[in-house]
Specification:
heterodimer, A: mainly alpha, B: mainly alpha, 8 helices
Chain lengths: 190, 159
Amino acid sequence: MKVGFKQYIGVFVIGAVYIILSIVRVDWAVQSSKVVWDYLKEMVLILPPVFMLMGLIEAWIPKNKIQKWLGGDSGLKGIAISFVLGTLPTGPLYVAFPMASTLVRKGASHTNIVVFLGAWAALKIPQLMVEIKFLGIAFTLLRFVLTLATLIVMGLIIEGVLHRFPDKEWLKKGDEQVEHSMMDTREREV
Amino acid sequence: MITIITIYGLLAVGLVASLAKSKEKTLKACMIAKKAFLKTAPSLLVMLGIVGLTLGILTPETISKLVGAEAGIMATLIAAAVGAITLIPSLVAFPLAGSLLRSGATVMTISAFITSLVMVGMVTAPMEVKELGKRFTLLRNGLGLFAALLIAFIMGVVL
């Protein structure tokens, strides 16, 4: 597997911004680097087990199961499952994207993915505790109900749009990926 | 802390079950994990850099100055924009929102800040594009911003 230079262009650009910043505004550069360090520590602790879990899901849970639980015909049950999965205390949002990607490729509907990501970001249980403490129970409850309702509507809209205008570029990339992993299994079996 | 216990707990259960059933398949899972990690690493690093920049520049003090204690619609829009751009951990965001509320910001402004913070992720967008596609990301974040403003408006009227 080749890790091309191209994939790291963004990283170099960000690096350059930090270097420029450390000349122009040292205080901003110092503050930003501190934040990066804090987040890096967190990511190093959280990401390896998350990717490992994704690998296990990929290897063990067959496509038709995910399709049945979270696919286009899963209806309210699918939404409920996505909602519960999202609210569990399982870390920051950047953890959710690789998971969502795995689920979509295994047949989850876009409605359910929107609810899953939305619940993950907006309706997490530990986060709600903090919110009640600082903003009160009325604020928290009202926001919870309104957010859940809009998430479901958003999910249905996005599902509809992507059904009519599929993201061909992204779908093509996915097919290549599947081919790659199939090739790998074949290599391993040989 | 709860997060870390939950994730490692889930992994431990999964790993034990997987190893008990098939060593072969567990190895395959490891390979898939390694590959996915290498593939995601660049966008993770970019995200990390952008998070650093936004939080390093838009500190809680700067945000309170920006959002301020004014009651106008302008303050609400600024709050929504700040919420959409930044990725602030809830342990920082909610106390900040609470103190803004006490110092005179309206409920509408505070809910615009909180809802757009959790519904829209400019900082995580590069990663979202990579994992779920450009179109999905644009739709989700665009509609999310609209929904955030709508929710803020309703909350401002009700509370």
